[in-house]
Design a protein that fits this description.
single chain, about 350 residues, alpha/beta, Rossmann fold, Jelly Rolls, 9-stranded antiparallel beta sheet, 14 strands, about 30% strand, globular
Amino acid sequence: MNTFAVKGNNSRFKAFFEKAERGEALTVAFLGGSITMGCNASTTENRYVNRIFAHLCEMFPKAALTLINGGIGATTSQFGAARLDDDILKYSPDMVFVEFSVNDDGRNELFRETYECVLRRILQYEKHPACLVINNLFYDSGENAQAIHNEAAGYYGVPAVSVRDYIYPRLQNGELSRNDLTDDGLHPKDKGMEIIATLVNKAIDEMKDEAANEPLSFPEAPLTKARYLTAKRLDNRNITPEISGFIKDTDKQADITDIFKNGWYSSENGAVFKTEVKACVINIQWRRTIKRPAPTALAIIDGNEANAVTLDANFEEDWGDLICLTPVFESDKSERHTVEVRVTDQPSDEVPFYLVSVITAG
């Protein structure tokens, strides 16, 4: 079986290997969802991220390698594009692994655009980092978004490793047991984490042993509208909205996985948040909660209540609160818009409506 779903171009990896062999200080970063965060691994060391990093440390004992884990559960490349600077690029990475293939919906054109923007911005970063795409899977159906993700990978010459293409046929023929790999059909346990790391490490080893490719010319034109190249996350650290009934959350954020921080909350019916942005695309990032009854709000753009988007915070799952990223306006032209969030139903003071941020693009 082929190691790579997309072979890609190895020139950036060969440059990384040369620097590592010289003993340089290098940063290895991972961007993704809950699998990257390490959900369901028994220990930190058993996460696929840490296994890959340990392999690199073993390969290059003279190098001073630093690990950045940018995994946040239940998030997509749409949010990834907005947090790329703060969570990955500010650390000046030399190698970046990207994993969103079970969180992005491969049938939704939005994620074709947002995923391309994540790859394009990583590759355009001033240090020219090596980049590799990882395709995880839903174990029971084999579904994932690798078709659109690997389309972008192929276009930019980024190697891609499909965990799905290795695991799913072996689940179907009985060579692998689902219960050995995952409890919930999504998050790998230690054995599943080991397989991910083994496949990626094999790809790294193959690139290390092969001859270097000529560097690719960077594609001038993107595949999509690529509006999320300029994605911005606006929260209480960088904007001062007009608020009535909302309270600025001043609690300190522990780390990037402490997601319900730096926003605004309200337990008041009729509370209003209002700000002005310039963008093509506007998204509201907010909390849906397992605590019920939960509040409902409206997102209103430019005072157009007829096209308001309902934000119902009642979450029907039981695994925990969900950070939602809801598109509320889209066009191809960047213009100034007023963004209003208005609480319309506040059943209980004990369950506030939490507005995490406004994310704009274009």
